[in-house]
Amino acid sequence: MRTGASTFAEGVDLSLYIIAGISVFFLVGITAVMIYFVFRYNKKRNPKATNIEGNNTLEVVWTVIPTILVMIMFYYGWMGYKPMREVPDDAIVIEAHAQMWKFSFQYPDGKITDTLVVPVNRHVKLNLHSRDVLHSLFIPAFRLKEDMVPGGNNYLWFNPNLEGRYDILCAEYCGQLHSFMLSSVTVVSDADYQNWLTSAPSTSDEHPGLAVLKQNACLTCHSQDGSKIIGPSFKGIYGKTEMVETDGVEREIVIDSAYIARSIKDPNADIVKGYMKGLMVSYEGVVTDEQIADIVDYIKNLK
Amino acid sequence: MTSTALNLNYLQVKKGIFSWIFSVDHKRIGLLYLYSLITFFLVGATLGVLMRLELLNPGKDLFEAQTYNQIFTMHGVIMIFLFIIPSIPAVFGNFFLPIMLGTDDVSFPRLNLLSWWIYIIGAIMALSTLIFGDGPADTGWTFYAPYSVKTGTNVTMSVLAAFVLGFSSILTGLNFIVTIHRLRTPGMTFLKMPLFAWALYATSWIQLLATPIVGITLLMIVAERVFGVGLFDPSIGGDPILYQHLFWIYSHPAVYIMALPAFGIISELLPTFSNRTIFGYKAIAFSSLAIAFVGYFVWGHHMFTSGMSGTARIIYSILTFLVAIPTAIKVFNWVATLYKGSIDVQPPLLYALGFIFQFMIGGLSGVVLGALAADIHLHDTYFVVGHFHYVMFGGTGFAFFGALHYWYPKIWGRMYNKLVANIAFFILFIGFNLLYFPMMVVGLMGMPRRYYDYLPEFHLPNMISTFGSWIVAVGLLLMLGNLIAGFRRKREAIVRNPWGTGITLEWQTLSPPPLANFDRMPVLPQDGPYDFDHKPEIKE
Asked: From CA B98, how far away is CA B196, in angstroms rounded?
């Protein structure tokens, strides 16, 4: 297992070691006794069996001992888990969003990132949201996981105690690119965290439309090079004539800015022939009209 | 001896395909199930080997992500609904329950035939998604909402197939309960029933009471997909957690539908090959009922990370640990049955010993998952995949193979090559552990399940696991090939009690049994089903 990097790791690992220890003891012990019996009481050595129908004392012993042991296991499991539900008041609250197949994190001051950066030895709480289907935020190094349920209000918190960069994985199957839904959490010193937080987002000469597409994970399903992923590629799509299905009726349309805007706000209204319905959620309220205009402008030039 | 119908065995009375597929003889129905189950098992196993092949290296090896997701869903649907749920009850329960109870058939023979037909219809529906519609489902066998509501693949048909298959399970359960209550031979009280019958009795109640819940839940998925009712999809007002509760209310007890009959098989194999009475008959019989009962109340442990309240998580964790107790009692009694026996190491016994070892790993890893703190880390990782394959394949699968080797001479009146059977067992045993143990390791390292591709640090365990899958494939082919070759071996006269030490009633009749099961009235051992001190003498 990887080295633990949060305050929970100790409790989780302790419960694992205790249960694994008891388990290995019984597994090895019972298997050894079983193999010994098979040799010792083989019919060559022991041609006449003795019929023993049972032994009440033994039955009681091997009911009581497992009962005590499982209660001990339960206790350590519970103790390791209990602090995970007790969020300290001074925790930094970050909104974690999931959608097919991307995590994003929104900091209290509005900063939005794809990967998480947190200060070492501070309490951090993540409110978990999903835009489409079930996802699960899993940080193996922190021994922590909680499902991200659309419409739900799950949360988790942690106190990272070791600087470094750790994987974040999606643990709940969420469709085609589930295994590619990755992110990371970087644990840094408090000073580095403050610097990072206040640093302006790196200004690039990227087209503003492309920036919006990246930020909303549009490009995981819509390629820019003409290849088919989940939805139609953006390349050369503007001005093209396509067959779409509207309420079960096929019709021909020309792809213009109105169609693009409608596809963002109500993606299941007109489905291009050959593509699946229901896989994209509405981005109404997520993407502004100005941003849609940027997207249209960018796609127009994607020949 | 005149060749009257009485002297013909059940395989000889009639010939032709229709005498099989419309037969109401419980023995023939058992074999119909056996042949269909093995067919689907081989399809499922092939899909499993293909999955392992894709996971041999990180990155794309064979399939696109979407194809892989459909393959693992199909693997799960086939193995769960078409193989492991019906497995032991439908094949060996059908064939041997009436004989072990000393009667000539189940209570409702026609209903029994209908169960098989429903099973076949369900199976055709499930497999039809390979050809018709928008491709087989890509949701995993759990059909979790809202993904199962949104995806464009043919979830509706897969779910309807599982719905139909449920009826087959319910009717078989009903048939067995009535048979056990009404048709035991005179003198056989409940506490003189073989333990296999006890295990089937506990199983049947779960089949009867729990299956309707999943039936309704799956119809709700169809309603959601077709009419957009708003039950599970939050974007139209539903609750995805509700689906998980409804699904696991059935699907956790279903785990005991899969496991309890296997316990029954082991409780038969151990006395026969130890040539002594079972240790703790009542403890084993009643622990089956205890597992069936407590098993109803532990479904929440599938949802420790779903966002259930903290209180619910604690309660489900305690209840989960309680199931471990009757299970441990069974294991202790089985091992004690070997004590001071006169042990004859035959292929079926090897499967029983392999079962105990692997089932312990499966059960103990289940205890790890029942602990809240450990589960938060291990939930939805490969640890879980390793755990349930240890229980289902290493446990129930090995018990199924053990039963097949045990009753083979009784069913067909032939014998397989025992040396080859032993070799096949060891290949299977080694391959199995190589295949599934690394999954638990990679799960501890943090690799989530249902993963088409993985990070480079997970490579080594995945590679070992894939090598293991090849060894398992070789073991399976050798085992089945040996059993099939047994049909063509020169027919030796198989006696009524070929193992010499069988004590339950099926060993008092001919091998294979006549159509009416017994050519003469079976005699019960004086003092309980495993009274080896007063074994009735069996004359040929």
From this structure: 11
pLDDT at A202: 60
Q: Token pair for residue A270? A: 């007109």
Which CATH number, 3.60.15.10, 1.10.10.410, 3.40.190.10, 1.20.210.10, labels domain B26-534?
1.20.210.10
Of the residues A134, A155, A157, A266, the best mutation for testing chain B's interface (the one with the most B CB atoms within 10 Å of its CB) is: A134
For residues A239-250, average pLDDT:
81
Residues of B in contact with A132 (CB under 8 A): 146, 150
Cis peptide before B146 (omega within 30 of 0): yes
Q: What pairs with residue A94 in β-bridges?
A: A126
pLDDT given at position B2 = 41
- What does the pLDDT read at residue B507? 94
Nearest chain B Cα to A127, which residue? B307
List the single residue in B150, B336, B367 with the smallest CB-CB distance to A23: B367
> pLDDT tens-digit profile of A114-152?
899 999 999 999 999 998 899 999 999 999 999 999 988
Alpha carbons B249 and B519: distance in angstroms, whole number? 45
- β-partners of residue A139 are A144
Q: Which helix (H) or strand (E) holds A169?
A: strand A164-170
* ipTM of predicted complex: 0.89
Amino acid A281: pLDDT: 73
Q: Average pLDDT of each block of 10 consecutive residues along chain B (540 residues)?
A: 60 87 94 96 96 92 89 94 94 96 94 96 92 85 89 87 94 96 93 95 93 91 88 88 92 92 96 94 92 90 90 92 92 95 95 96 94 94 96 96 96 93 97 96 94 93 96 97 88 84 92 91 90 86
**Domains in chain A and their CATH numbers?**
9-85 (1.10.287), 92-198 (2.60.40.420), 208-300 (1.10.760.10)
* Alpha carbon of B48: minimum distance to chain A alpha carbons (Å): 18
Q: How many angstroms separate the CA atoms of A251 and A273, rounded?
A: 10
A205 Cβ partners below 8 Å, 6+ apart?
none
What is the spatial distance between Cα B5 and Cα B17, in angstroms, rounded to a whole number?
Answer: 20
Q: Where are the alpha helices (DSSP H) in B371-458?
A: 372-378, 382-391, 398-412, 418-445
Chain A 52-91, residues with CB within 8 Å of chain B CB atoms? 52-55, 58-59, 62-63, 66-67, 70-71, 73-74, 76-81, 84-85
CB proximity list for B532: less than 8 A, separation 6 or greater:
A49, A51, B271, B275, B276, B277, B503, B525
Q: Considering just the CA atoms, what is the radius of gyration of chain A in Å?
A: 28
Residue A26 has pLDDT above 80, yes or no: yes
Question: Cβ(B78)–Cβ(B123) under 8 Å?
Answer: no
Nearest to B357 by CA among A173, A28, A266: A28
Question: CA A76 → CA A7, A9, A21, B318, B375, distances in Å?
Answer: 15, 13, 13, 12, 12
> What's at B403, amino acid-wise?
A
